[in-house]
């Protein structure tokens, strides 16, 4: 079973949505999420939770920070922005071969970032969730094509 770690800023919006989608749609993956500036135990943002529930996806995630142990655990580390990726590269070593932005991993051209919806409407979260889900579907297709 492949282990995937999703990373965003606070681990309350984008990365937990990505974790929830991957768990829901592709349960054969082992998945966690974490935040570059997250603490432990914060609940998922209410709008993120609502966007997930609107798609029939349950999310009981609580936040956790990125740690060397989590990075070691993961077979694949997918960040929501290039800034997250660069911060991991600067703060930790020896993860370059498994560290990508989610968009970069599926060979998307152009902007490599999934925009943070924090503080915006549920509709914006739903749009962000759909974007994340589309890239996860492509990521899984790529991974299963390489198996």
TrEMBL record:
InterPro entries: LMW_PTPase, Ptyr_pPase, Ptyr_pPase_sf, Tyr_phospatase_low_mol_wt. SMART domains: LMWPc. It comes from the Bacteria. CDD domains: LMWPAP. The active site is at 8 (nucleophile), 14, 116 (proton donor). Residues 2-142 form the Phosphotyrosine protein phosphatase I domain. Keywords: Hydrolase, Protein phosphatase. SUPFAM superfamilies: Phosphotyrosine protein phosphatases I. One of its GO terms (molecular function) is protein tyrosine phosphatase activity. The keyword Nucleotide-binding does not apply. Belongs to the low molecular weight phosphotyrosine protein phosphatase family. PANTHER family: LOW MOLECULAR WEIGHT PROTEIN TYROSINE PHOSPHATASE, LOW MOLECULAR WEIGHT PROTEIN-TYROSINE-PHOSPHATASE ETP-RELATED. This is Protein-tyrosine-phosphatase. It comes from Alkalibacillus haloalkaliphilus.
């Amino acid at each position: 079973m492949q282990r995937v770690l999703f990373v965003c800023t606070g681990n309350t919006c984008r990365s937990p949505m990505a974790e929830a989608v991957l768990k829901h749609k592709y349960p054969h993956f082992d998945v966690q999420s974490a935040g570059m500036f997250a603490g432990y135990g914060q609940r998922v943002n209410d709008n993120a939770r609502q966007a997930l529930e609107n798609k029939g996806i349950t999310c009981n995630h609580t936040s956790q920070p990125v740690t060397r142990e989590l990075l070691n655990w993961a077979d694949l580390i997918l960040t929501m922005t290039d800034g997250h990726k660069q911060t991991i590269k600067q703060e930790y070593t020896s993860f370059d071969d498994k560290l990508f932005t989610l968009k970069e991993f599926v060979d998307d051209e152009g902007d490599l970032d999934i925009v943070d919806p924090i503080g915006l409407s549920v509709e914006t979260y739903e749009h962000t969730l759909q974007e994340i889900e589309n890239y996860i579907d492509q990521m899984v297709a790529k991974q299963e094509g390489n198996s």
